[in-house]
């Protein structure tokens, strides 16, 4: 049994002062349905990723609300949560629900409404993804956690401040052409290095923003996929866990969950890192893209900074990373990011991405990370139907 | 068997603000304040320090010196006029942080600047009565002073802790108190800053009580100033204890080792206790020490200690008063205002 | 908005041994030490036997940062240093480093100090616990 993605949708990622979470999730779902040509009535189940609607907007029981608003009652609706990896989880659950033979047409979505809270409250809410008793309780933030990782990576491998800045520069250069990006503006290394310190050594322009947005994709069984001209196939899917608290890991410079999830996905796909034509990775902070490049096997451990510096991650480079702008430029509505990444990989593999298109893309990978790396999800997609 | 101080320790926050810096803001003559108060700078608590944290750190030093199992401590009395809560004891946090266990008598004391020495008297009484093996007495404050008031130049933060029991490093030879209803300084419930009687705080208040209690104790023990190697008097500023010691017939040499007010200001309930710690840091076996506290409202507790040979090994086991005095960082008035929450944000 | 769990009395109360005195645990079967406490040894599983353990409060900085944009409830303390610290006995923790934060460096030896960790507004509870200072 093979499963394909036949429809994708994303709202603009932005500070949507006039739109609520229900508006955004319905909008993304409608775009995905229109993109696929499937009627809403034919969707058999919904899986939605969301990190913290309970804290961000005081709303739990979100999956039922989403099908309610979309007029899809009474199909089953399930919410998945793994902090910033919530919607990659929703996608996997949707995938499994078809693999099990129970359904043929399923929607996976992700949504987050973050800007109803003021900044310090949003930061505290996001820290719900850390160890509440031993990280959040001492005043750590996610910028703080990734700053601890960044400092260790700099100490161990000589990764430079400039190399981290180049990650943000690359992603913004790509995002300029993305009409759905929150910050489609070019930046320079100098601008990154002069932006305010958030948590030393990380500065404002190393950090992904606080964003509202939603994304949705439609998955179908092999049988249904036959009706579609350009289905994009799921070749491999891996998920793994690590300690919730950063300080409990033997090494802070690698995310073991990413390595394990990637190994599984590569094996299922029968592919090697060198076969991947583009990757959407989780650049919530610039250092995390460097670590992702290493952990996904695109270069040796400790060489990620150099890989970036050498320009290999550019859209026309040897290994295009975040060719549509990444979390940094597109924005990071935490529960929506995983499905947004998948939607972008699908658009690239269809070969219909216009100015953002990576040339001759056959295989694409999406890496979605929760917290400081306690959850990692890797999905690999292909243009051609696998044997 | 002798009863007295088994272990002692102090804690002084590392931040300081100078008299010059405060005078600069209020357009006051710094030199006359420095000379008049005999204070150069005062210790200021950081944003995360309060009477409880100062008490715990001081008591940890006392425990290190005493070398006893914390569970043998049968009473914990914290004296302060800046307990963090109006209702909820400081002592329970202190006891829990030290691992004292739950078989313990705890109460918070308040008697202006002499609550810490009152706590020492209570522990002494309980040990002497055989009710407890050891008692922990603490005097600590993060003192308040109204912005622009003379008190602002001296109101400081610090504390000292004493474990009272048998086998002491300083035997308590006797103690007494001289107490009257004299309102020279007070703070009403809910008021941010204390009020005081200005020059009334001198002759009928501080000097009357300090000299009376000291004389009462010397009479009771048939001792005279020359029998003491050292003396410590409550230090609301530098001038008062110098004058009191002269009135009683003590020399400058006798009080200079415990004279910490010029470097740390007046940490209220911690004032004479920190002075006693500084004195114990240098005393030799056989030295006798007089300590007289003063608390507005008003009363003085007077103590006579005889230092034993236990002092020599025990005092090296923890940080000394001068270590804390030397480890400092000066701040400006802006930071001070932020730290002392005089700024509404 | 105050985060509701930060006003929780029992949530902090049940952790006070660890927060005030650095009580962790150890597996007597494999000798692995844990901070904070674990009630299951991940190596020995059901063969493990866990008991409380007092850590001595000495450690070494592995990595550090200065938090300049704090979460709700920590605004007045910022900027503050946070480090990942290797405890002498073997476990690893995150903790604030107090004192002159410009002197915080990887490799420095640190020891515990008792401080206020968080205050629940001006009328809520004050949570105390251990921070770290550079050992001279």
Q: What order do the helices and strands come in, and which of them pair?
A:
The complex is a heterotrimer of chains A (387), B (345) and C (136).
Chain A: E1 3-10, H1 21-36, E2 45-49, H2 53-56, H3 62-69, E3 77-80, H4 86-99, E4 105-112, H5 119-126, H6 142-157, H7 161-175, H8 189-194, E5 197-199, E6 202-203, E7 213-221, H9 222-225, E8 232-241, H10 256-269, E9 278-280, H11 286-295, H12 304-309, H13 326-330, H14 337-350, E10 363-370, E11 375-382
Parallel strand pairs in A: 2-3, 2-4, 9-10
Antiparallel strand pairs in A: 1-7, 1-8, 4-7, 5-6, 8-11, 10-11
Helix pairs in contact in A: 1-3, 4-14, 7-11
Chain B: E1 3-11, E2 15-18, H1 19-26, H2 30-37, E3 41-44, H3 51-66, E4 73-79, H4 90-98, E5 105-109, H5 115-128, E6 134-142, E7 157-166, E8 170-182, E9 185-186, E10 195-196, H6 202-221, E11 230-233, H7 239-248, H8 252-256, H9 261-264, H10 271-280, E12 288-292, E13 297-307, H11 311-314, H12 321-326, E14 329-330, H13 333-339
Helix pairs in contact in B: 1-2, 3-4, 6-7
Chain C: H1 9-13, H2 16-21, E1 23-27, E2 33-34, E3 50-54, E4 58-67, E5 80-87, E6 92-98, E7 109-119, E8 126-134
Written overview of the protein:
Chain A has 387 residues and is α/β, with parallel strands linked by helices. In chain A, 36% of the residues lie in helices and 18% in strands. Chain A has two domains: 132 residues, Thiolase/Chalcone synthase (Peroxisomal Thiolase, Chain A, domain 1), CATH 3.40.47.10; 228 residues, 3-Layer(aba) Sandwich (Peroxisomal Thiolase, Chain A, domain 1). Chain A has a nine-stranded mixed β-sheet, with helices on both faces. In chain A, strands 5-6 form a two-stranded antiparallel sheet. In chain A, strand 5 and strand 6 form a beta hairpin. By secondary structure, chain B is of the alpha/beta class. Chain B has one domain: Thiolase/Chalcone synthase (Peroxisomal Thiolase, Chain A, domain 1, 3-Layer(aba) Sandwich), CATH 3.40.47. Chain C has a domain of 80 residues: Beta Barrel (OB fold (Dihydrolipoamide Acetyltransferase, E2P)). Helices cover 8% and strands 42% of the residues of chain C. Chain C has a five-stranded mixed barrel. A three-stranded antiparallel β-sheet of chain C has the order 2-1-3. The N and C termini of chain C lie far apart (40 Å). At the B-C interface, helix 3 and helix 4 of B face helix 2, strand 7 and strand 8 of C.
